[in-house]
Write a structure and sequence with these properties.
It holds the Pfam family tRNA_U5-meth_tr. This is 23S rRNA (uracil(747)-C(5))-methyltransferase RlmC. This protein is of the alpha/beta class. The protein has two domains: 8-108, OB fold (Dihydrolipoamide Acetyltransferase, E2P) (Beta Barrel); 113-290, Vaccinia Virus protein VP39 (Rossmann fold), CATH 3.40.50.150. 31% of the residues lie in helices and 27% in strands. The protein has eight helices and 13 strands. The strands form three sheets. A seven-stranded mixed sheet has the order 9-8-7-10-11-13-12, with helices on both faces. Helix 1 (11-23) packs antiparallel against helix 2.
Length: 291
Amino acid sequence: MTARFILPHFAPVFAALKPFIARAGLTPYNVARKRGELKYILLTESQSDGGMMLRFVLRSETKLAQLRKALPWLQEQLPQLKVITVNIQPVHMAIMEGETEIYLTEQQALAERFNDVPLWIRPQSFFQTNPAVASQLYATARDWVRQLPVKHMWDLFCGVGGFGLHCATPDMQLTGIEIASEAIACAKQSAAELGLTRLQFQALDSTQFATAQGEVPELVLVNPPRRGIGKPLCDYLSTMAPRFIIYSSCNAQTMAKDIRELPGYRIERVQLFDMFPHTAHYEVMTLLVKQ
C-alpha cells in the first residue's frame, strides 16, 4: 500500500488542475505505448508567503500553444501560482525533467525565507524537499561554523546557497560552487539582498573547481548528491588539508565511504535530520577536524 501525504490546502490546486489538463489538451503520457504529452506535474510551495511554482513536464512542445491559451483560466482560479513553466523531456526514460524550460509567467523564481535568510527557488535548481527540517539543518550548520575560527570558506555543491548564506558573516570570504546556473542565479540574488559583498557564487563543477586551486580555505563545506563527493575530491582535500570539513549528505553510506578516504581527519560532531519522514532516508551532517 502506498501512503499519501498531501497538505489539505493543496486540494483546491489539484481540483483546478484536473479540468485545466483537459482544456489544454494535455493527454497523459502512456509509458507502454510511448504516446501522450503530460509526463509530470511538479508543484512547489513557498513556506514564507504561500506562493507556488507549477511546472508541466511534457514530451514535446506540441500542446504548448493550447496550454498558453488556457492558462489565464488557471491563473484566475489559482492566484497563488507565481511561477509557471513548461519543461520539455522528450526521452522515453524515467527522468524527471529535460534541459529545456519555457517560462509562462513574468516571475521566474519563487521567494522563500529560512531563519531570516532570503532564498529563491527556480526550476531546475536544487532545493531541500522538507522546508521545516532544512531550516534546522542550515541553522545548525551556521551554529557550528560560528564556533570555528573561519574567515574563508568554500560551499561546494551549494545549490541555491542555503548553507553558505546562513554561515557567512560580513567579514567572511565565501565561494559557492554549483553546476546548475539556475541555482547560482538564486544564490546571487539572495547574497545581494543580504548585502554580503564578499560572497562569490559560480556555476562550475565543484570537483573541477576545487582541484584546480593551489590553496584551500580554513573550511570546506560539501553537500553532494547521493553518490558522494568521490575519490578525486577526497584525494584533493586529503592532500590540501583544510582545517575543517563540514559534510552534509542524504546518503550516509557514501558519506562514510568518502570519510574513509580522509584518514587525516577525526569526526568531531554528527547530527541526523529527519528530512524524509516515513521513509528509511535521512540527512546527516558531520564536522571533520584535521588531526
